[in-house]
Design goal:
Structural class of chain A: alpha+beta
Oligomer: heterodimer
Strand order of the largest sheet of chain A: 7-2-8-1-14-13-15
Largest sheet of chain B: 8 strands, parallel
Number of domains of chain B: 2
CATH class of the domain at 23-53 and 211-375 in chain A: Alpha Beta
Shape of chain B: globular
CATH topology of the domain at 23-53 and 211-375 in chain A: Glutamine Phosphoribosylpyrophosphate, subunit 1, domain 1
Number of strands of chain B: 23
Helix content of chain A: 25-40%
Largest sheet of chain A: 7 strands, antiparallel
Structural class of chain B: alpha/beta
Number of helices of chain A: 11
Radius of gyration of chain A: 20 Å
Helix content of chain B: 25-40%
Number of helices of chain B: 16
Chain lengths: 380, 504
């Protein structure tokens, strides 16, 4: 499979539509834990997926290589020739500190698993590239591999974190990659997919990742065409034709490149109604008015729930009129975000607090803070 | 010279219904009807009839029908009745044939070949009667990014924001000047714009001083090639300023308000002597290039202390995308594009019917070009030219427009029947005339209510269609061509529109 920018708007493939189950858990004191909770929780929401895609994102995954970008690359059809090309490309642009096949349990029967390899790398810049920030450098190389090397796809590219995903139910993916046995992290997010078409392609599963940002998403974005065209102006070309991709790029643009905090980004994605803004006090009213005016093309319309994570932070958000559910809960240092409360109760029957955030209210979970409780006051 | 023209319309009077009340006689501005006292009978001079239907609507007994005249030349595909009549008229006058309203030729109306989407199963449609549905639109330049300052829980905006105008529905009234239309019609548009929270456009005829305080904040004031009525107060009382380069009905052509229409009030508003012709040159003589345009844009921004968005209005011509890009780069905050079917008070018929391109294709090309150049957010796109219903408006927004100008539709709401005789100054509906006997037929209180009703009806319909698509804010359908599909269009047309064929 190869992705390219298609110039003709008319010839672009239709985007996929899908419904999904989401779960995220974070330890706010940064203690690493195994994958059991994420796996059990998503198993509990089995009907939210149909076995055509599942995946996990884990933070605090590779402490021994924490300073290196961890690239997870899949080679379609286990194509060794492609791997050779990628190796050459990586060696040209990076110093490869260590690389290995991602261990898998081949006894798990899955649909056409690709060869998955991980590389721990540091940028090797040419003199004229010295000014390019590392992150931008890595993004460009990842895009290059995804767009120009057939059958190769980088599905994870952050430091000290990683994505594992594929075609199957998420618990099968977990078993295949032996997540419960081999890995620990302080954030786990997981996604179970219910696409309405069947591409049967491993890269199409979620989480969607760029650098250390991951997005798991449930919903059908009605504003896709508007969002996509706006993002194209900033150099993001949606080559996967999924809503999640749009969401991920919008997060990248607003949070990483423009440096806006999630509390503001949430109000861009799911802004309050004009009627509500009219009742705000002067300063606040101006802020929300200007946000809506400037970022109108990034309003994410239609039903969605999203859990976005990067280092030190995980947040959940549902659309402005809450057409997709999300529930939050806390127990000690653990904070849970889930499509369904039942999934949280399945892994932690007793919680200190469980609440349903209202539409457009983000639940922001930050390391060493209690920021997630801020959404409690505005919950339903 | 004896006229060889066939009458355009025939007037059918049912004598069994006619009560000789002579309403038709008083309502007709062309002198078609007259009463013969001796015979106590109404007669018609139907060769004068323009088919405006005023008499038919006002006949209290329904005794009148006005229809296209049944007499026909020998049918000929090449030499149509219209060609015959135009030739004969020119042979009799030796002049340029004038007309009013928009192009009536059967160019493809792309709106009728585009269909909208709706939600089924995978996402829910939204009921606009039960849930908020937002049409508020901002016109003006948007920054690339906002600089924000976050202190604890307080977020404040650090960067300066360009001036934007807010409208409550993505529909504004097109430029129609006081002079081209009557004071009453002009005021009706202003009142409706104010009441509904949208904008009217003064055209190039200025804004009467007594209207400035109340209606200025709802006006886009034009600065056109004749510079009529432009003074600092005019510019500063307005919501936005528009530089008029061209008009869809007559690209490349100026305007001419004959002296007999320049009444005392119009003369004062336009700041010209009473009874003199108001000639708008074809080009603006201080704009022979894009850099000249930039100078005028910034001159107007200086004059308004950078507090108003500046719009540049052009006719949709072949190279419209590149021109629009230049306009944005020259500093305009709004690009207004008027298409092939845009209306006019007076234009040479040969120009109206043969120059320019359809607004649908122009809009798609401009939106795409601006996006490709990464400058789409630096301006708003306003489109005009033959919008007939709310679906046309929504389709235009899905193709990339920020808002739509309606001219003909607004006039029709006030009574106009598109008889195309605006240039005669004898509009029986009181719209396109300066004759006080005719213009007082428009009562601004009532006409503005008709206009408000039109805006309200269209806005409701847009909300219904948006809700069906599962969208609750108009900005989420802007440029969202994924919600459009073409039916019965050629490959190249779909390509230009950037829209898939139905079923694709």
């Amino acid at each position: 499979m190869i992705f390219q920018k298609i110039d003709s708007e008319r010839r672009q493939p239709n985007k996929e539509s899908q419904a999904c189950g989401l779960f995220g858990v974070m330890n706010t004191s940064g203690e690493r834990f195994g994958g059991e909770m994420a796996i059990t929780a998503i198993k509990n929401m089995k009907v939210r997926g149909n076995g055509l895609g599942g995946g996990f994102a884990v933070y605090g995954l590779y402490p021994e290589y924490r300073d290196y970008y961890a690239l997870h690359v899949m080679f379609q059809n286990r194509n060794r020739e492609t791997k050779h090309k990628v190796d050459e490309f990586l060696n040209e642009h990076f110093r490869v500190i260590h690389d290995e096949e991602i261990p898998t349990d081949e006894r798990v029967p899955l649909f056409s698993p690709p060869l998955c390899w991980r590389y721990f790398v540091a940028p090797r810049k040419r003199p004229e590239e010295e000014g390019v920030p590392d992150d931008e450098f890595v993004v460009a190389r990842v895009m290059h591999i995804n767009c120009h090397i057939e059958d190769a796809y980088v599905f994870s590219s952050g430091k000290d974190m990683g994505v594992f995903k594929g075609v199957g139910f998420p618990e099968e993916i977990a078993e295949y990659f032996m997540l419960d046995k081999l890995y620990r992290g302080y954030i786990w997010t997981v996604h179970s997919r219910f696409p309405t078409n069947t591409p049967g392609w491993w890269g199409g599963a979620h989480p969607f990742n760029i650098l250390d940002w991951t997005v798991v998403h449930n919903g059908e974005i009605s504003s896709y065409g508007t969002n996509k065209r706006f993002l194209e102006m900033f150099g993001y070309y949606c080559t996967l034709y999924t809503d999640t991709e749009v969401m991920a790029y919008a997060v990248d643009l607003l949070m990483r490149r423009q440096g806006l905090p999630i509390e503001v980004v949430a109000k861009i994605f799911a802004p309050p109604m004009w009627d509500l803004i009219a009742h705000m006090d002067g300063e606040e009213r101006r802020l929300y008015t200007v946000l809506r005016m400037v970022y109108a093309p990034l309003l994410i319309n239609g039903p969605f729930t999203v859990i976005v994570a990067h280092h030190n932070e995980m947040f959940g958000l549902t659309d402005r009129i809450r057409l997709r559910p999300i529930t939050a809960a806390a127990r000690g240092d653990f904070v849970f975000l889930s499509s369904e409360e039942a999934a949280i109760r399945a892994v932690s029957p007793k919680v200190d607090l469980a609440w349903t955030p209202s539409g457009g209210e983000p639940v922001v979970v930050r390391l060493h803070t209690r920021d997630h409780l801020k959404s409690l006051a505005r919950s339903i | 010279m004896y006229s060889y023209l066939l009458p355009e319309f025939t007037v059918v009077r049912r004598e069994d219904r006619c009560i000789r009340c002579r309403v038709c006689e008083r309502q007709c501005a062309e002198g078609v009807h007259h009463w013969d006292k001796g015979l106590d009978r109404m007669f018609s001079a139907e060769e004068k009839c323009v088919g405006c239907q005023r008499c038919v609507v006002f006949c209290p007994t329904g005794a009148l029908y006005v229809r296209p005249h049944p007499s026909e030349y020998r049918p000929n595909y090449n030499w149509t009745r219209e060609r015959f009549q135009d030739l004969k008229r020119q042979a009799e006058t030796g002049g340029v044939i004038l007309t009013g309203s928009g192009n009536d030729k059967p160019f493809r109306v792309y709106w009728d070949h585009l269909v909208l989407n709706a939600s089924q199963v995978t996402n829910p449609s939204i009921d606009p009667l039960r849930e908020p549905m937002e049409l508020r639109t901002f016109l003006g330049r948007k920054p690339d990014t906002l600089e924000l300052e976050v202190e604890d829980d307080r977020v404040s905006i650090k960067s300066e924001v360009h001036p934007n105008v807010v409208i409550e529905t993505p529909i504004a009234f097109s430029a129609m000047s006081y002079g081209a239309i009557s004071y009453q019609a002009f005021k009706s548009l202003a009142m409706a714009a104010k009441e509904f929270g949208t904008l009217f456009n003064t055209g190039e005829g200025g804004l009467p001083r007594d209207m400035r305080a109340e209606y200025g904040p709802h006006a886009i004031v034009q600065c056109a090639s004749g510079r009529f009525g432009v003074d600092p107060e005019y510019l500063n009382c307005a919501a936005a300023v528009e530089i008029k380069i061209g008009q869809g009905a007559k690209p490349g052509i100026g305007g001419h308000l004959p002296g007999e229409k320049v009444s005392n009030s119009i003369a004062r508003t336009r700041m010209i002597p009473e009874g003199t012709d108001a000639l708008s040159p074809a080009p603006q003589h201080d704009i022979y290039s894009i850099e000249d345009l930039s100078m005028l844009i910034y001159a107007l921004k200086e004059a308004t202390n950078y507090e108003k968005p500046v719009s540049v209005k052009i006719a949709a011509v072949h190279n419209v995308a590149a021109i629009a890009s230049g306009i944005v780069r020259a500093g305009a905050d709004i690009v207004a594009i008027d298409g092939l079917r845009g209306g006019t008070g007076a234009a040479p018929k040969i120009i109206r019917d043969n120059v320019g391109i359809p607004i649908e294709l122009a809009l798609a090309a401009v939106d795409r070009r601006l996006r490709e150049e990464g400058i789409r957010h630096k301006c708003s796109i306003l489109v005009a030219g033959g919008f007939r219903c709310s679906a046309d408006v929504l389709k235009a927004i899905a193709l990339g427009a920020d808002a739509v100008y309606i001219g003909s539709a607004a006039l029709v709401a006030m009574g106009c029947t598109l008889c195309q005789k605006c240039y005669t100054g004898r509009c029986a509906w009181g719209i396109c005339t300066q004759d006080p006997y005719l213009s007082k037929r428009i009562n601004p209180e009532i006409a503005s209510q008709r206009l408000v009703n039109l805006l309200r009806g269209w806005s409701h319909e847009i909300k219904e269609m948006l809700g069906g698509m599962g969208i609750n804010a108009i900005e989420s359908v802007r440029g969202n061509r994924d919600h459009l599909r073409g039916v019965g269009l050629e490959d190249w047309e779909l390509e230009v529109l950037g829209v898939k064929g139905a079923g694709e």
